[in-house]
Amino acid sequence: MFNVRFAARMASPVRILTAVPICDGHDSAINTINLEFIRHGIEVVYLGFHRYAGDIVRAAIQEDVGAIGISSYNGGHIDFFAEVVRQLRRQGAGDIAVFGGGGGTITPDDAKIMQRQGVDQIFFAGTSLAAMADYVRKHYGKPRKKRPAKSRSDLVLARELTAIEDAYAGQGRLKQPKSQKASARNSKVIGFTGPGGAGKTTLIDELVLRFLQNEPQARIAILSHDPSVIGEGALLGDRATMINSQHDRVFMRSMATRGQAGGLSPATESCLTRLTKADFDYVIIETVGTGQEALPFRSKLIDQTVLVMNPDYGARLQLQKIVMLDVADIVVVNKTDLDRAKAALSEIEHRLTQNKRKQELVATVAKRHRDPGVDELYEMITASSKGDKK
Ligand code: B12
User: Fold this and answer.
1) C-alpha angle 84/88/94, rounded to 5°?
2) What distance in angstroms lies between residue 243's CA and the mean position of ligand 1's atoms?
3) Atom 26, ligand 1: which residue's CA is nearest?
4) Which residue in 122, 180, 245, 269 has its CB near the most CB atoms, within 10 A?
5) From the CB of 21, is ligand 1 less than 6 Å away?
6) In CATH terms, is domain 185-234+241-388 a member of 3.40.50.300?
7) Pocket test for ligand 1, best of 27, 65, 73 (most atoms within 8 A of CB)
8) What's the order of all strands across the beta sheet hosting 220-226?
9) Residue 119 reports pLDDT greater than 80
10) How confident is the model at residue 3 (pLDDT cuts 50, 70, 90)?
11) Is residue 372 helix, strand or coil?
């Protein structure tokens, strides 16, 4: 199913996480720097601006990055960077380096204090983008050591997912831990796909909020995909949209497609297998924005598929060409606050009747808090999970 022969020729890119601290909206510097890192073959998980130290540390652990790059202009850099270092160490992830910059707001004297507190490197105004990218590639791309088995479960799981991705990149052997083979499958798996810009990530984030609120013990895993060319960098930016999913009961992993067409990565199936053996009640997979021909969910592990569409798909005839409309269990028309929504819903409903199988259609406005359409979608997903969970 996966193009392993092709995948075996690529190498795992250097992987870092970048973010802007709480009470700081200066994101234009980090946006520019992210692009430069990507151009230099680095995979960048971008968490966004106005982020708590705890959110940054949780994300860095789950994403198993080599380093965290923080761009700080709000004047609180000495305490904030130190807090990130402290939390990493407290959680057994002191091997993740912390670096960053903030133009003239971080003075050389501040940087000395920060380095004494465990920060690896501060870049000052005037440093070239290429010099920073070179530094990252040189210092944060070393192969990471296995975490001791007694470490926190997120730490161990995150590194196992890295081992799986590395194996597909031809950098290691894929060894299934014994406990994995023995344990039964625990999770319901839901696959989300649809064209870019339909609002998949926002919709998933709103659904996660409902899982967290209605199921106080539930744990959720998200495997989120962004496109990348084989052996090159990628911007893994879905976390920047995820607000509710910054939560201790949510384990999120951003994956680059690393050259594979169709919406998923060569390593997705194996990572999914691993996640379904962990203690998650739900595993959500989000594909990259897909085209008309995409049928990304062929895995037997996926229990339910959701196609998320935008009402602006063009002429009615276009619907005949979208193959996911034939196979999706649930079709969501998101952004139904747009003018064309009523017509789109009626056209899609008509299109689905041709399939002569049970498919649900739901209208949502995911960007709206407490949207009744998202409530309905949540009910559809959880209603079937009660009987279908394997
Ligand atoms: C652009 C800008 C804005 C834009 C921000 C747009 C955006 N979306 O980012 C706007 C106009 C919105 C803005 C608003 C404000 N700003 Co302003 N802003 C700036 C400005 C002019 C440039 C910052 C910048 O983007 N630099 C571009 C980067 C690429 O270059 P650099 O800063 O030199 O950084 C180098 C390195 O440090 C490194 N680097 C930086 N980050 C990172 C991260 C990593 C991982 C790495 C590896 C390297 C790295 O990259 C560069 C290499 O050469 C600075 C002044 C200045 N000249 O620095 C003020 C400045 C940061 N702003 C300031 C202030 C006060 C504000 C406001 C509070 C103003 C107000 N009262 O409303 C608001 C707050 C907004 C908010 N929500 O947080 C102050 C901060 C003072 C302080 N902390 O003590 C500054 C210093 C201006 C000043 N002299 O007073 N701002």
Assistant:
1) 125
2) 24
3) 29
4) 245
5) no
6) yes
7) 73
8) 250-256, 220-226, 282-286, 188-193, 304-309, 330-333, 360-363
9) yes
10) very low
11) helix
Beta-carbon contacts of 109 under 8 Å, excluding residues fewer than 6 positions away, are none
* Alpha-carbon torsion, ordered 344, 345, 347, 350, to 10 deg: 170
With CA atoms as reference, report the closest residue to 374 among 237, 206, 221. 206
- Ligand 1 mean position, distance from CA 309 (Å): 37
Does the beta carbon of 278 lie inside 6 Å of ligand 1?
no
Whether the model clears a pTM of 0.85, i.e. scores above it, the answer is: yes
Mutational pocket test of ligand 1: of 16, 17, 18, 26, the residue with most ligand atoms within 8 Å of the beta carbon: 26
Nearest CA to 81 out of 138, 134, 38, 123 is that of: 123
The pLDDT confidence band at residue 179, using thresholds 50, 70 and 90, is very low
4-139 has CATH 1.20.140.150 classification? no
E strand residue ranges, the chain: 15-19, 43-46, 67-71, 97-101, 121-123, 188-193, 220-226, 234-236, 250-256, 282-286, 304-309, 330-333, 360-363
Q: How far apart are CA 105 and CA 208, in angstroms?
A: 37
Cα separation of 168 and 157, whole Å?
A: 17
CA of 252 to the centre of ligand 1 (A): 30
Q: What is the pLDDT of residue 2?
A: 34
Mean pLDDT of 132-140: 97
Cα(305)–Cα(163) distance, integer angstroms: 27
How far does residue 62's CA lie from ligand 1's centre (Å)?
Answer: 29
Phi, psi of 80 (to 5 degrees): -65, -50
Q: Say which residue, 384 or 197, is predicted with more confidence.
A: 197
Contact, 376 vs 208, CB < 8 A?
no
31 lines ligand 1 (CB under 6 A): no
Predicted pLDDT at 5: 38
* Domain boundaries defined on the chain: 4-139, 185-234+241-388
Beta bridge partners of 256: 226
Measured in Å, residue 70 CA sits from the centre of ligand 1 at 13
Q: Give the separation between CA 137 and CA 260, rounded to whole angstroms.
A: 24
**Contact present, 191 and 287 (Cβ < 8 Å):** yes
